[in-house]
Specification:
Layout: E1 24-28, H1 33-44, E2 48-53, H2 61-72, E3 77-81, H3 87-97, E4 101-104, H4 118-139, E5 143-149, H5 172-191, E6 194-200, E7 203-204, H6 213-223, E8 227-230, E9 236-237, E10 240-241, H7 242-251, E11 258-263, E12 270-271, H8 272-283, E13 289-292, H9 307-313, H10 321-339, H11 345-364
Parallel strand pairs: 1-2, 1-4, 2-3, 4-5, 5-6, 6-11, 7-10, 8-13
Antiparallel strand pairs: 9-12
Helix pairs in contact: 1-2, 1-7, 2-11, 3-4, 4-5, 6-8, 6-10, 8-10
Bound molecules: nicotinamide-adenine-dinucleotide (NAD).
Residues 28-29, 31-35, 52-58, 83-85, 105-109, 124, 128, 147, 149, 200, 202-203, 209 line the site of nicotinamide-adenine-dinucleotide.
Length: 365
């Protein structure tokens, strides 16, 4: 394991996160927003990363390229086009690369869209996780870090702490993540798997998902198009910068038994209108707002209590919202020229693969 083992005890004091030697990580969802940034940080630290993705969440070719290209510069990076729902494929891969830890970030994300294709969310988030756990059991792997969500806390008073009973999910997305958390627990109990469940709070940053609020707000304000706001804009979020999340994922690789950790900025939540105002100030441009009814799968407010993550993982968010927004806006404004660069041979393979998948997806729908 990358970190010295820490026995799981009733009161978990801390995980020793000081490590000196290089490890191999398997990252699922490596072409995604959070997966690609996490891989990049690990590769920069000298680790080996085997990344898998089925590209189903790829927003477009340019974004996928911009996420994968920096990883391909490292000889210690390997990409496999693979589906976590394929148990036999995952088993073969795990047996071959024998990672020290599996960072399971692949998933279908998005609360509202989970109402349109709930079966797909259950298949990827719940069954995909089960398949991965089975493949780990069959190959004797013990450490998994799982990407869960703050949306499980819907209905509870803020700030949310990890001990709250999260038994009333309000969307197929959060229900599918809850199912996956529970399956991880069963495998911890039965097969002594070491599980870090991480509940992320609204992640934003460069190369972020185009379906998420901050990306949409920046794009609309920079390009001068209207912003569609659901609700009156007073909904507040514990916005968390992607680099903080990636560092939290890496901090959670130490052995814990089975534990749930919040990864959120942990500061006072910020309303959507306040975020829009910040972006207006930083870009010097005015937003045009179009209001729509509040969506019933949305939450009014999210806010993480991060005391446990601070105490056990020695982790806390470092980026202020202002600094995170500055970096995200700078990336957005720069990315056009970066996207126009030539394709490398590996990028060409991804390009063609991506095109084929898009055609197949369209043919099915
Ligand atoms: N971004 C957030 O604010 C946030 C908040 C809470 C939880 N999460 C969770 O964190 C994880 C990463 O989120 P993200 O924002 O980077 O999303 P993302 O969509 O950018 O990344 C997920 C990646 O998983 C891949 N994927 C989906 N189904 C797959 C499958 N069956 N096999 C292999 N790969 C598959 C997608 O192609 C995509 O590249 C997700 O599990 C998400 O549910 C994200």
């Amino acid at each position: 394991m990358p970190y010295p083992l820490v026995k799981s005890v009733k009161v978990l004091l801390h995980v020793n996160t000081s490590y000196n030697f290089m490890s191999t990580y398997l990252i699922t969802g490596v072409a995604g927003f959070i997966g690609s940034r996490t891989a990049e940080i690990l590769l920069e630290e000298g680790h080996t990363v085997v990344g898998i993705d089925n590209m189903s969440g790829a927003p477009d070719l340019k974004m996928t390229q911009s996420r994968l290209s920096p990883l391909e510069q490292f000889p210690t990076f390997e990409f496999q086009f693979m589906d976590v729902e394929s148990e036999s494929g995952m088993q073969k891969l795990l047996a071959k690369c024998a990672p020290d830890a599996v960072l399971h970030l692949a998933g279908k994300a998005g609360v509202r869209s989970s109402m349109e294709t709930p079966q797909a969310y259950m298949a990827t988030n719940a069954m995909g996780t089960l398949n991965l756990l089975e493949a780990m059991r069959a190959t004797g792997l013990k450490k998994i870090v799982f990407a869960s969500t703050s949306s499980l806390y819907a209905g509870h008073p803020v700030p949310f702490d990890e001990n709250l009973p999260v038994n009333s999910p309000i969307s197929p997305y959060s229900a599918s993540k809850k199912a996956a958390e529970m399956m991880c627990h069963a495998y911890h109990h039965l097969y002594q798997m070491d599980v870090s469940i991480l509940r992320f709070f609204t992640v934003y940053g460069p190369k972020g998902r185009p379906d998420m609020a901050i990306y949409k707000f920046i794009k609309s304000i920079v390009e001068g198009t209207p912003i569609n706001l659901f609700g009156d804009g007073s909904q507040s979020r514990d916005f968390t910068f992607v680099d903080d999340i990636s560092r939290g994922i890496i901090a959670a690789v130490g052995n814990v038994g089975y534990e749930v950790f919040n990864l959120g900025a942990g500061r006072k939540p910020v309303s959507l209108l306040e975020v829009i105002h910040h972006i207006e100030m930083l870009t010097g441009k005015k937003a045009e707002l179009v209001f729509h009814p509040f969506h019933e799968a949305d939450m009014d407010v999210t806010w993480s209590n991060v005391a446990k993550s601070q105490r056990v993982l020695h982790w806390e968010a470092k980026y202020s919202l202002e600094e995170g927004l500055k970096r995200t806006i700078r990336w957005f404004e720069d990315s056009k020229s970066r996207f126009e660069s030539q394709l490398s041979p590996i990028q060409n393979v991804h390009h063609n693969l991506f095109k084929r998948l898009s055609i197949e997806r369209h043919a099915k729908s």
